[in-house]
Design goal:
346 residues; 33% helix; binds NADP nicotinamide-adenine-dinucleotide phosphate; 11 helices
Length: 346
């Protein structure tokens, strides 16, 4: 007998919801993370959590970047909620681990905000990349997406890429040859993959404009050196007037498509102002406020299409991994930054 006995397993995982009754796993406050698989579930031994960037930044700021305090903070969230669902940002992340039944190494492709998670111990926190090595287990529901880890890409690199897989896939869909594309937060994980996809789609007649707080990071230099971007704008995306004036100087016709990949709140209006009339803003950032975006666009009288950054797009995992394979300089950069193991990151 376990805590789930008597509850009928549901493919969407509602049988794991403890509080409030009737909620779906993502919106629930608390899940039952008993590490025993029901008949339609996959029980995984978890090694690494990739905490969503907006969530990790919030926790790291609240804990003064102390590894010990971050570990305790994460443990307390998981203890209380049965999942790594940051109550402040509302976001989660993903894990890598092993299917206990088959031994296969996998990465989850559904958010930690709906994944029952049980942590036995936290082995290490890497503040630079937002990864946490743990001993623990997680449950994937029958509906839960996952990917077998590829043989040709380091699994920590794959984890970093798969966490943001929705971004390059959506950029591939949204961008057209000849367009102007503005990528805000261009030197982060999703930003770099988005720049590569945007340049490939917009082509030589198009223009990709990167925006980041500094042009001196290794990622920013790489984007310029290898021609992934046509212009690099240094701006704080929270300063709507500053970013829009600088983007207008780099691309006077403004963006056909703006991709927001930042990990801080307050960048909705800046993104809208960088976009031309009838253009599209894709808010991949988890720090996006629907209210700020909707009222911000109305307030400045801008008729733009605004898209919520769905974490899932058909084939997104393969598109994201292929983006890395197609762009060796970005792959090398990701390898240097994310391939560290629990031991080598020390
Ligand atoms: P990341 O690697 O941490 O990159 C964040 C980027 O934002 C960095 O380039 C950072 O620049 C930049 N940035 C921070 N503050 C800025 C500011 N004030 N103005 C301009 N740029 C700023 O993050 P990521 O993993 O790519 O994730 C990006 C966003 O996507 C996060 O909000 C994350 O939560 C979200 N996300 C969404 C989904 C989804 O399904 N929609 C899935 C995963 C992640 P510096 O590094 O120079 O500070």
């Amino acid at each position: 007998m376990n805590a789930l006995s008597g509850r009928k397993p549901h493919p969407l995982g509602t049988h794991r919801v403890i509080d409030p009754p009737g909620a779906m796993p993502q919106s629930a406050w608390k899940l039952d993370s008993t590490p025993v698989a029901c008949e339609n579930e996959m029980l995984c031994d978890v090694d690494v959590l990739n905490i969503d960037s907006a969530s990790f930044k919030q926790i790291a700021d609240a804990c003064d970047a102390s590894e010990t305090r971050i570990a305790e903070h994460v443990r307390s969230i998981v203890r209380e909620r049965g999942k790594m669902h940051n109550p402040v940002t509302g976001s989660g992340g993903m894990f890598i681990g092993r299917n206990r039944a088959t031994g296969e190494r996998i990465a989850s492709l559904v958010s930690l905000t709906l994944t029952p998670l049980h942590i036995e111990s936290i082995e290490r926190v890497d503040v630079a990349t937002g990864r946490i090595w743990i001993r623990g287990s997680a449950i994937l529901f029958a509906s839960g997406l996952w990917a077998a880890l590829p043989d040709d890409i380091d699994e920590n690199v794959a984890l970093a890429v798969l966490d943001v897989a929705g971004a390059p896939a959506q950029v591939q869909r949204l961008c057209e040859p000849g367009q102007t594309v503005v990528i805000i937060g261009a030197d982060g994980k999703s930003g770099m993959l988005s720049c590569a996809q945007a340049k490939a789609r917009a082509g030589s007649s198009g223009r990709v404009v990167a925006v980041a707080p500094s042009s001196e990071t290794a990622a920013a230099k790489l984007l310029r050196e290898y021609g992934y971007v046509d212009a690099f704008v240094v701006a704080d995306a929270r300063d709507a007037l500053d970013i829009s004036e600088k983007v207008a100087a780099a691309a006077p016709q403004l963006a056909d498509v703006t991709i927001n990949c930042v990990n801080v709140p307050g960048t909705e209006l800046g993104s809208i102002l960088c976009t031309k009339e009838n253009g599209t803003v894709y808010f991949f950032s988890m720090s996006t406020s629907f209210t700020a975006a909707a009222l911000g666009a109305e307030g400045v009288g801008k008729d733009v299409t605004m898209i919520v950054g769905n974490g899932y797009a058909r084939g997104h995992a393969q598109t994201a991994l292929q983006t890395l394979r197609d762009h060796p300089p970005i792959h090398t950069y990701f390898r240097e930054k994310y391939a560290a193991t629990k031991e080598s990151a020390r």
